[in-house]
Amino acid sequence: MKKGFTPFRNIQTIMAKFFKVGRVDSRLNLSQKSNKFLTGFTLLEILLVVAIISILSVVIVVSVNPARQFKNSRNSQRKADVHKILNGVYNYYVDNNAFPSTITTTSTEICKTGSSVCAGLVVLDDLTATQTYLIEIPIDPLGGINENGVGYKIYKNANNRIFISATRAEDETIEISI
């Protein structure tokens, strides 16, 4: 072996170069040196982790887009409600060979089931009175246009064809007919 060469001193030199610190005091044992220089995360590591998490959360929020999901959900409910009302009107027609007499040729909002004040609204109590055709008239997810309205309009054209529409539909037109 070379004179003055000790393996322990080489380890100290390597450690000092690796951690970019001055010469390590030989009186400290190796575990004290590593604890002294290896505790916690650096600021750069923390900032990188925060940046990565932020980027991932933005990507997830943009891809999910909760506002669009809620809007699509409400529109799906409106389509189901319009079909439900139309099926009730059609079944009434099949049983009675006529549409309810309150349906006019002007597109008018439908009144809520059991409401006592329905001025200017179409009353479809014939459909809900015996609960044969509908238990109650469905209400738009955002509520009616009028206080006692359900948010859906109904009318019949000159050819006696029934049209039902969701007036509060978002970004699309929801109207069906029989």
Name the features:
5 helices, 4 strands, Glycoprotein, Type 4 Pilin, 178 residues, four-stranded antiparallel beta sheet
Order of strands across the biggest sheet? 1-2-3-4
**Structural class by sheet pairing and helices:** alpha+beta
Main CATH class of the largest domain? Alpha Beta
In one word, what is the shape?
rod-shaped
Number of domains: 2
How much helix is in the residues?
40-55%
The SSE string, one letter per element, is: HHHHEHEEE
The number of distinct helices, counting runs of at least 4 residues, comes to 5
Note the beta-strand portion: 5-15%
Rg over CA atoms: 37 Å
**CATH topology descriptor of the largest domain:** Glycoprotein, Type 4 Pilin
Poorly predicted parts: none
CATH architecture designation of the largest domain: 2-Layer Sandwich
Report how far apart the termini are: 102 Å
Strand segment count: 4
Please give the largest β-sheet.
4 strands, antiparallel
- Summed over residues and divided by their number, the pLDDT gives a mean of 84
Transmembrane segments: 37-64
Protein name: General secretion pathway protein GspG
InterPro entries: N_methyl_site, Pilin-like
Keywords: Membrane, Transmembrane, Transmembrane helix
How would you summarize what this structure contains?
With 178 residues, this protein is α+β, with helices and mostly antiparallel strands. Helices cover 43% and strands 12% of the residues.
